[in-house]
Specification:
This protein is 33% helix and 25% strand. It is globular. It is built from ten helices and 14 strands. The protein has helices spanning 11-15, 18-30, 101-120, 136-148, 161-172, 229-234, 242-248, 250-257, 270-274, 298-312; strands at 5-7, 42-46, 49-58, 61-69, 81-89, 95-100, 127-132, 151-157, 178-180, 191-194, 213-216, 236-239, 266-269, 290-293. It has an eight-stranded parallel sheet. It has a six-stranded mixed sheet with strand order 1-6-5-4-3-2.
Length: 316
């Protein structure tokens, strides 16, 4: 049996940048992988919150993430998301590496968003970003967006004013004009990114400009959402996979349950975008916002974990 390689949280940023992780995901999709075939996430309620089991297998690797979601942890000074990822050899299922599951999630989720941002936003001018959230995902998404697009301004909206000002200050270290703001700032945004634990809409979707892009990643529960029905009905909607979105994306399922949209409202998937569906230059879409709703999928964890393992082994 091979020795199990341990990849901890501090090692991950050294091994793989958000931009490189987005490239890895794009390569998987361009190679023909179909996310619609990926195994569903299993969620198990426990006294502290929820346990998530996310298995996947593709190509050279198989793997499984066991993640804990503990809503009470932040009040104790502990992370809300915990867990581990076990990477296996795809041919014989020998364990190869054990990775910090929370850090893996903090890398792969912004990478997925960055891949969508590359395909849904123009690259001919700096963008005005409005970022909802002040936690680890918000910091990761700021860096991932900066790797994908030049920013004219970053506006941070958070429940904690101190946290919002701190993240705005962090954005300024990258040379980006930044400040704390309010939900009304979406009115002038080119890109809105939502990475919060909110269960109800964060802003008035009617105020989002035509041609703007909204990325929502904060929830994977059918009854929780960060965007409202007004935005969803106006928007050209893209998801990681239709099957996953129709199981877990409250941003879409709540409007569906109320009869505002049908399942056919989803215009396309991340694979469609990566494999050539041109949204930015489609004049028919110029009068509509774009919404990318992400719930997080096991194939993404596997792809990024495999890339981290290869990098840790020196590219072998």
């Amino acid at each position: 049996m091979t020795d199990l390689l341990l990849i901890d949280a501090p090692a991950m940023p050294r091994l793989l940048t958000p931009a490189a992780a987005a490239d890895v995901l794009a390569e998987v999709l361009r190679a023909g992988f179909d996310p619609e075939t990926a195994p569903p996430r299993t969620a198990v309620p426990v006294p502290a919150g929820e346990l998530l089991l996310m298995p996947a297998a593709s190509g050279a690797y198989a793997g499984v993430k066991i993640a804990g979601v503990a809503p009470g942890n932040p009040a104790l000074g502990l992370p809300r998301i915990t867990g581990s990822y076990l990477l296996l050899d795809g041919a014989d299922l020998r364990p190869l590496a054990l990775l910090d599951g929370a850090a893996l999630t903090e890398l792969r989720t912004p990478a997925v968003s960055a891949l969508a941002v590359r395909r849904l936003t123009p690259d001919d001018r700096p963008l005005r970003l409005v970022l909802f959230g002040t936690g680890p995902q918000a910091y990761g998404h700021l860096e991932a967006v900066l790797a994908a697009r030049e920013l004219a301004e970053a506006v941070v909206v958070g429940r904690d004013p101190i946290g919002a000002r701190a993240l705005a200050g962090y954005a300024r270290t990258f040379g980006v004009p930044a400040r704390a703001g309010t939900p009304g700032d979406v009115e002038g945004a080119d890109l809105v990114v939502c990475c919060t634990t909110a269960r109800e809409p964060l802003f008035d979707g009617a105020r989002v400009a035509a041609g703007a892009t909204v990325v929502a990643v904060g929830s994977h529960e059918p009854t929780a959402r960060e965007t409202d029905t007004a935005l969803v009905t106006r928007a050209e909607v893209y998801v990681e996979a239709r099957s996953a979105a129709l199981r877990e994306a409250g941003d879409l399922l709540v409007p569906m349950a109320r009869g505002a949209i049908g399942e056919d409202h989803v215009a396309g998937t991340l694979a469609d975008l990566v494999n050539g569906h041109d949204v930015v230059n489609d004049r028919a879409l110029s009068g509509r916002p774009r919404l990318f709703k992400s719930v997080g999928m096991a194939w993404e964890d596997l792809a990024v974990a495999g890339a981290l393992y290869r990098a840790a082994r020196g590219g072998s």
